């Protein structure tokens, strides 16, 4: 156990976390030439394409130092706030962290939020000044910033380049010398933390764990504490680029477990694995059930594909436990599902996976948060509203509550004014302002979650010229003056376009929605009035004028291939249209409310 080191890499996005991980694997000879591929740890196609780490993974390296063989377990962490619970679990499985800071960009918001998480878990922090090869690098100044932040000595900061290989050996030495060996007692009952799980269509759910106490043996009967279920450990092993089955995994080490579980929901990140016959009395603390934060409708473009969509969603759920869905129907869109996601990125990922892996063409409706409505008949019992069209008749509504968050934003002092006006526009109330250094300011706000769901990230990036990082935690429900704005096309209400908004913004949003829809809905053979309404009161109106001439006419007599191309294009465009009454609505229109400020 003395020869094991468990560590993670934490960094602000794009500071070089994945590149550094690749370089460490390379240097320790943990990958063969054939396996070499950029960003090895990001094994999902989607991850590689987007250049972000979606799911955390673990990998074991062996390294000889001063004649002794060491096992270094690198636990990778996802970088997006939607998956922050997974970051916190990965961090809890380590004793040390490499804090990677870009030598040109210095400390950024996520550097700090991840650092706090690591410090809360008592991790040994090894600061790495990455990208020193860049001409724009500013090593002295950034080292000073790091020293200020951590209170460490300047010589503890390791200058490195994940690109050219500078400093990699020094990093490995620091991991061995500075990160403590795991503690724990092999004779105590098994106590292992689940920090990740991955679904494999052939083998079922693979659970990644870190043993705090005791040991796990192949064939042993084990128990998941949170779900209370027992299983047999059919296979256990350690993780390199491929899996290495083992007979025993002991205290301090990291490994994988296969039990034949076929449903991802049965394995929860943060749960404790213990022995079924001699269970531990102290499950590892801090387990929480992750709850969906954002809801949206997903409908098949072709109504006949509903059953196929259901089976695709069920399969997706088997490997993504954080996805929830219930069937719903919409007058405009027919049968579909109301789905719950961890955040906007998660929603995009699910939508893309449905299309890529299951070949489904779907229409997604405007995302919304989950509201609590209380009626005048029963002022005590909350009616959960996950879809704006489920809001009870306004005349019977006593009050509506919406989820609030505590938002933490770190930015440069120059942008404090901009960030504050943005947050206030988004109905935020400032609760604290702290200067971390003379240049960096931490602001905290109480804000409605619904305001973050829309264009908040993009706006924050713009007003701070990219220099603001953002994190949030839910702080419960609060009463708000919310109304439902309905949209009517050709005098017919389109339920999928309804949104719950704050009363003070309702008129502006209604007006912008009408204008945006006018842009997005193609002109047709007749005039189409677009109206926004609160209850029976129309608050805004636009008209899409009828087409006057045949657009394909100009192709007449032209090159046939050009015409075919045009028709092909039209067919493709059609795929994502939805006929509502006699109006064809394209997919973008259902998301119009997200783009009101473009
Ligand atoms: N010049 C230089 N570029 C680097 C170095 N390390 C990483 N990069 C580049 O910086 C960019 C971001 O690197 P990544 O490793 O993807 O960053 P990351 O922190 O893993 O990003 P996320 O996974 O999105 O959080 C890539 O284009 C890398 O090629 C370095 O030491 N020097």
Report on this model:
With 598 residues, this protein is of the alpha+beta class. The protein has five domains: 4-178, 3-Layer(aba) Sandwich (Rossmann fold), CATH 3.40.50.300; 191-275, Beta Barrel (Elongation Factor Tu (Ef-tu), domain 3); 294-365, Alpha-Beta Plaits; 371-480, 2-Layer Sandwich (Alpha-Beta Plaits); 508-594, no CATH class. Helices cover 25% and strands 34% of the residues. It contains 14 helices and 33 strands. The strands form seven sheets. It has an eight-stranded antiparallel β-sheet with strand order 11-10-16-7-8-15-12-13. α7 crosses α8. 45% of the residues are buried. It binds guanosine-5'-triphosphate. Guanosine-5'-triphosphate (GTP) is lined by residues 11, 13-19, 51-53, 79, 130-131, 133-134, 161-163. It is a peripheral membrane protein.
Q: Give the count of helical stretches.
A: 14
CATH superfamily of the largest domain: P-loop containing nucleotide triphosphate hydrolases
Question: Which CATH architecture of the largest domain would you pick?
Answer: 3-Layer(aba) Sandwich
Oligomerization status of the protein chains:
single chain
Computed structural class:
alpha+beta
Shape: globular
**In total, how many beta strands?**
33
Named once each, the bound ligands are: guanosine-5'-triphosphate
Q: Give the C-level CATH assignment of the largest domain.
A: Alpha Beta
Classify the helix fraction into a percent range: 25-40%
Strand content: 25-35%
Give the CATH topology of the largest domain: Rossmann fold
Strand order of the largest sheet: 11-10-16-7-8-15-12-13
Summarize the biggest pleated sheet. Answer: 8 strands, antiparallel
- Compute the CA-based radius of gyration: 27 Å
- Average pLDDT, all residues: 85
Integer count of domains: 5
Question: Low-confidence parts lasting 5 or more residues at pLDDT below 50?
Answer: 47-56
Tell me the distance between the termini: 56 Å
């Amino acid at each position: 156990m003395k020869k094991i080191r468990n560590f993670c890499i934490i960094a602000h996005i794009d500071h070089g976390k994945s590149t550094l991980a690749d370089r460490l694997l390379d240097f320790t000879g943990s990958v063969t030439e054939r396996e070499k591929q950029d960003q090895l740890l990001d094994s999902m196609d989607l991850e590689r394409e987007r250049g972000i780490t979606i799911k955390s993974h673990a990998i074991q390296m062996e390294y000889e130092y001063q004649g002794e063989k060491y096992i270094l377990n690198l636990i990778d962490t996802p970088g997006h706030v939607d998956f922050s619970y997974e970051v916190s679990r990965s961090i809890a499985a380590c004793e040390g962290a490499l804090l990677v800071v870009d030598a040109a960009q210095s400390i950024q918001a996520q550097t700090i939020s991840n650092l706090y998480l690591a410090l809360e878990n008592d991790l040994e922090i090894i600061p790495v000044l990455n990208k020193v090869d860049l001409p724009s690098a500013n090593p002295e100044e950034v080292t000073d910033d790091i020293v200020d932040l951590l209170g460490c000595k300047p010589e503890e900061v390791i200058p490195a380049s994940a690109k050219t290989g500078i400093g990699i050996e020094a990093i490995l030495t620091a991991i061995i010398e500075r990160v403590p060996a795991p503690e724990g007692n092999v004779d105590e009952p098994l106590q292992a933390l689940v920090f990740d799980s991955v679904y494999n269509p052939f083998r079922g759910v693979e659970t990644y764990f870190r043993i705090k106490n005791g040991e796990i043996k192949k064939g042993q009967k084990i128990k998941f504490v949170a779900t209370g279920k027992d299983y047999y450990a059919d296979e256990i092993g350690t993780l390199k680029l491929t899996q290495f089955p083992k007979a025993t995994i002991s205290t301090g080490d990291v490994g994988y477990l296969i039990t034949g579980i076929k449903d991802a929901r049965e394995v929860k990140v943060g749960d404790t694995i213990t022995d079924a016959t001699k269970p531990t009395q102290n499950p590892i603390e801090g387990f929480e059930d992750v709850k969906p934060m954002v809801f949206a409708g997903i409908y098949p473009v072709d109504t006949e594909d509903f059953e196929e969509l259901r089976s695709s969603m069920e399969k997706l759920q088997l490997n993504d436990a954080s996805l929830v869905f219930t069937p719903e129907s919409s007058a405009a869109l027919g049968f579909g599902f109301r789905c719950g996601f961890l955040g906007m990125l998660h929603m995009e990922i699910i939508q893309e996976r449905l299309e890529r892996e299951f070949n489904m063409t779907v229409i997604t409706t405007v995302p919304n948060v989950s509201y609590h409505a209380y009626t005048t008949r029963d002022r005590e019992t909350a009616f959960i509203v996950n879809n704006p069209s489920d809001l009870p008749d306004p005349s019977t509504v006593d009050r509506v509550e919406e989820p609030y968050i505590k938002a933490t934003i770190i930015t440069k002092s120059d942008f404090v004014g901009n960030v504050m006006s943005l947050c206030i526009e988004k109905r935020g109330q400032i609760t604290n302002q702290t200067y971390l250094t003379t240049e960096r300011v931490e602001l905290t706000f109480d804000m409605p979650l619904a305001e973050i769901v829309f264009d908040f990230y993009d706006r924050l990036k713009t007003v701070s010229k990219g220099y603001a990082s953002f994190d949030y935690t839910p702080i419960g429900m609060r009463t708000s003056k919310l109304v439902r704005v309905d949209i009517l096309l050709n005098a017919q209400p389109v339920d999928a376009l309804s949104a719950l908004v704050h009363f003070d913004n309702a008129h502006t949003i209604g007006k912008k929605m009408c204008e945006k829809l006018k842009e997005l809905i193609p002109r047709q053979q007749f005039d189409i009035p677009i109206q926004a309404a609160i209850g029976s009161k129309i608050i805004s109106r636009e008209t899409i004028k009828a087409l006057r001439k045949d657009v394909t006419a100009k192709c007449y007599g032209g090159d046939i291939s050009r015409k075919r191309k045009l028709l092909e294009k039209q067919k493709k465009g059609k795929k994502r249209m939805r006929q509502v009454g006699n109006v064809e609505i394209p997919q973008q229109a259902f998301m119009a409310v997200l783009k009101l400020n473009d």
